[in-house]
Write a structure and sequence with these properties.
Helices cover about 35% and strands about 20% of the residues. The protein is an alpha+beta fold. It is flat, with a radius of gyration of 17 Å. It contains four helices and three strands. The mean pLDDT is about 90. The chain has one domain. The protein has a three-stranded antiparallel sheet, covered by helices on one side. The N and C termini lie close together (about 10 Å).
Length: about 130
């Protein structure tokens, strides 16, 4: 078994929340099906380029909603697991070293991977699993 995790981040410094890290985990046994379903939906909707909520216009709103419904359908079928991590700006870290501030991106991604998908609980068998 192999887990494939697609990740992206956005909004480093938002008004209320910052450091958004998102990920989609797909098991290797579902990878081709998930890719085909999403590629077909994007083609059907005639969406070109990266899908981002910032790019939504009145003309594309229904297309984006339809694509999200497709993703939620895959989640409901347990073909994709979605996780999102972010920080609340009310909690300001104190006592960080320069090295920690310089490596914030990598340190936060590490915490995201470590905790978001419950990987340490994902293998109740002796079968090898890779990410």
């Amino acid at each position: 078994m192999q887990y494939i995790i697609y990740c992206d981040e956005s909004v480093k410094n938002g008004e209320y929340y910052s450091n958004f890290y998102g990920g989609a985990l797909v098991r290797s046994i579902h990878l081709q099906e998930v890719k085909t379903v999403l590629e077909n939906k994007i083609s059907e909707l005639n969406i070109n380029g990266e899908v981002k909520w910032q790019k939504v216009t009145a003309n594309y709103l229904e297309k984006y909603k339809s694509l999200v419904d497709t993703v939620f359908g895959l989640i409901k079928q347990d073909k994709i697991k979605i996780r999102i991590m972010f920080t609340h700006n009310a909690f300001i870290p104190v006592g960080l070293t320069k090295e920690q501030r310089d490596n914030e991106y990598f340190l936060l991604y590490y915490q995201f991977f470590k905790h978001a998908f419950g990987l340490k609980y994902s293998n109740s068998t002796k079968e090898p699993i890779s990410i």
